[in-house]
Design goal:
Order of helices and strands: EHEHHEHEHEHEHHEEHEEEEEEHEEHHEE
Number of strands: 18
Structural class: alpha+beta
Oligomer: single chain
Number of helices: 12
Distance between the termini: 40 Å
Length: 455
């Protein structure tokens, strides 16, 4: 067996709301050096911003505090380090909450929390716009000024550099705001192996390692299409671990005696997840070339990854902006056999006619017949009559009252529409704010990250 040094980075969360027991299982199931916890999606930032508006001490992923409670013995006794983007829009409060847990467990002296800030551009938005940074929509080219009065959050995707700095300054827990998902894995590898800022191939390998495990069990058998019926023991699924070497090669594994499956097919499925141009996977640290990835079986539940190439990063950072875009509501009714689809179609026509007679106008009115056409639309091939069909109707409009009037028109169909409604429950549909996504680019030079280590 090779004596070459291996650094193990374990994935413990793939999104905010993932399996709460996964972090503990990762640190207790076998040797790991780092635990990576990824909590943030684009819409999550706006949710956290609204929470912070209501309570200035909030704005971070609170599940992370429970995860830290469960892994503290591994951190303080075995030296496992934790890296998470759970800080959301309030990394400092998140860090203090971690220290409060350490204090309650009487291990405060053994916990040093690195806090990475600077990604939140909301307080600087007007300054940036005034100085010529249009933050134009990446698809439409519209300047952000057209929706400025409705912006909820604006965060730049930061890379691995400030996380590496926090580790170098002695942090054993690092909390960030909107870092890239991949940086959470790449940073510890870059720190441990001393990869330079222009070691493009190694940096690209670190990014792809992060990409493979950023969604938790999605690369170890969860949500896996290949041979899905025969994936063993999903109830006990093992989350993935990167076993990395200094040359940039790494192996994807999981702990022994856990369920799920890691093979070339499961890792391949994750590799193409959220991939645009395979030649140019752009991150703040490096541009990785996915066409250079080589995968090879390396034993049971082991896949070796090698041959990765990268090149210099761009001079831009991606910015995730969330803004208010009106209101929506969705109502459902389930119609039973016989003639379930015909009944649902008639109910839809009746509802639309009533809304038109009321003079209501919506930005969008969408009908889906769940069980018949909602997933694949006209590609669905009906081999027989559907035993039940869910009518799902959604509307959106800028005016809340317009949407509220729609919500009153679903329930009456139970008695004054087609027969055989069987699934109506939950009362009147709820009116919800629409939070829209605005992707933009900004010059790297204007985003200044800061690192503070608390103990």
């Amino acid at each position: 067996m090779s004596s070459e040094r291996i650094v193990r980075v374990a994935s413990g969360q793939g999104f905010w709301g993932d399996w709460l027991d996964a972090p503990r299982r990762q640190v207790e199931g076998g040797p790991v050096d780092y635990l990576m916890l990824d909590y943030l999606a684009e819409v999550t930032m706006s949710i956290l911003q609204k929470q912070k508006e209501r309570d200035p001490s909030m704005g971070y992923a609170r599940d992370f505090i429970g995860a830290m409670e469960s892994v503290l013995p591994a951190v303080t006794d075995r030296g496992v380090k934790v890296i998470a983007n759970a800080g959301g829009v309030n990394p400092l409060s998140c860090a203090h909450a971690v220290l409060d847990v350490a204090e309650a467990r009487r291990v405060a002296g053994n916990v040093r929390v690195g806090v990475v800030t600077g990604d939140d551009l909301l307080p600087r938005l007007d300054e940036l716009l005034a100085s010529g940074h249009a933050l134009a929509h990446m698809e439409t080219g519209e300047p952000l000024s057209t929706v400025r009065d409705r912006v909820l959050s604006a965060n730049a995707y930061i890379g691995s550099t400030p996380i590496v700095e926090a580790l170098a300054r002695g942090a054993n827990v690092v909390v960030t705001g909107r870092s890239t998902d991949t940086a959470l894995t790449m940073a510890p590898l870059r720190y441990e192996f001393g990869w330079g800022t222009e070691d493009w191939d190694k940096l690209a390998a670190g990014i792809i390692a992060g990409h493979i495990i950023e969604c938790g069990a999605q690369c170890s058998g969860g949500n896996c299409l290949y041979d899905w019926r025969n994936i063993p023991d999903l109830a006990n699924i093992g989350y993935p671990i990167v076993e990395a070497k200094a040359d940039g090669t790494f192996t994807i594994v999981k702990h022994p005696n856990t369920g799920g499956r890691i093979n070339v097919q499961s890792v391949s499925e994750q590799c193409v997840y959220e991939m645009g141009d395979p030649h140019s996977y752009i991150t703040p640290d490096v541009v990785a070339d996915f066409t250079t990835i080589h995968l090879a079986a390396d034993g049971e539940n082991r896949v070796k990854v090698f041959g990765i190439k990268g090149r210099a990063a761009t001079d831009k950072l991606k910015v995730s902006v969330a803004y208010r875009s009106g209101y929506k509501a969705v109502g459902t009714l389930v119609y039973a056999w016989p003639d379930a689809l015909e009944k649902a179609q008639l109910a839809d026509r009746v509802l639309r006619e009533r809304l038109e007679n009321m003079g209501l106008r919506f930005d969008s009115l969408l009908t889906e017949f769940v069980g018949v056409s909602s997933t694949h639309g006209p590609l669905t091939v009906q081999t027989g009559e559907a035993p039940e069909v869910q009518l799902r109707v959604g509307v959106r409009a800028q005016d809340r009252k317009t949407v509220e009037r729609f919500t009153r028109e679903i329930a009456p169909l139970v008695l004054n529409g087609p027969p055989s409604v069987t699934g109506f429950a939950g009362g009147r549909p709820k009116v919800e704010d629409i939070v829209a996504y605005w992707p933009a680019l900004v010059d790297k030079a204007v985003v200044k990250t800061m690192v503070e280590v608390l103990s």
